[in-house]
Write a structure and sequence with these properties.
two-stranded antiparallel sheet, mainly alpha, 248 residues, single chain
């Protein structure tokens, strides 16, 4: 039988989850009622892909309050997958495999948020306004899709392994390979050229009211997404213990 004490969630995980829920709600409220529709002319403008006249973002910039924290969380998931993979290869401890799997599961979720919100904003910023028109295979969108597919491949391929040892080894190696993918996403605009995605969003998010909401969003939404990693890690560790007891 699994030790009930080991099944309980640590207080830090519960606190992080509660902080994330409060922060996410605060972000939604502030982004709607506090952040203005338009700041000083020029602070919420982007250049169209054909280098023509700038367009005003109006309400569409509010999506960044979810888009950016989700992107940061995806980056952290890549880092956790890399750390977990390296430490499993060095120690062969199952906890590190659970960390890689948890990071991939949440990274798949946060990556989907990044792709969905980025595409929806692209529909307005450089698309025709129709759903899906913002997807133009520009470098950052494309590399983000590759990263998302890598998370999905890890979770699918490891399930195809009959041997637990092979499954653990493949998970660790995959985690190491996934780690460098987010830097590729981050540098895609500089490496491959700025087709339509802004090279830097800081100028668009620098107005005082917008910056305040952005900071709350980064803390609140990021805490919620990191709490998911901690919750999935606790679940995966419990599943490992159950599987170990069944095999004995």
């Amino acid at each position: 039988m699994a030790d009930p004490a080991q099944s309980r969630l640590p207080f830090a995980v519960v606190a992080l989850a509660l902080l994330g829920l409060v922060g996410a709600q605060a972000t939604l409220w502030l982004s709607h009622f506090y952040a203005p529709t338009q700041i000083t002319e020029g602070s919420l403008w982007v250049v169209t892909p054909d280098r023509g006249a700038p367009i005003n973002l109006y309400e569409s910039y509010r999506i960044f309050f979810v888009h950016l924290p989700a992107a940061y969380a995806t980056a952290i998931c890549c880092g956790l997958a890399l750390v977990g993979g390296v430490l499993w290869l060095l120690s062969r401890k199952p906890a590190w495999e659970a960390l890689v799997v948890s990071a991939a599961e949440v990274g798949l979720f946060t990556g989907a948020i990044v792709l969905a919100t980025g595409t929806l904003w692209g529909d307005y910023a450089w698309g025709s306004g129709r759903l899906g028109s913002g997807w133009n295979w520009e470098p950052r969108l494309t590399t983000m899709l590759i990263l998302w597919l890598a998370f999905a491949a890890l979770l699918v391929v490891r399930r195809a392994m009959d041997s637990a040892a092979q499954r653990s080894a493949l998970t660790a190696v995959y985690g190491v390979l996934i780690g460098p993918l987010y830097p590729l996403v981050s540098w895609a605009v500089k490496l491959f050229g700025q087709f339509s995605h802004p090279a830097d969003l800081s100028g668009m998010m620098s107005a005082p009211e917008v910056r305040t909401v952005r900071n709350v969003a980064q803390l609140g939404v990021l805490a919620a997404l990191l709490a998911l990693v901690a919750l999935r890690f606790a679940w995966n560790r419990l599943a490992q213990r159950v599987e170990q007891e069944r095999s004995t």
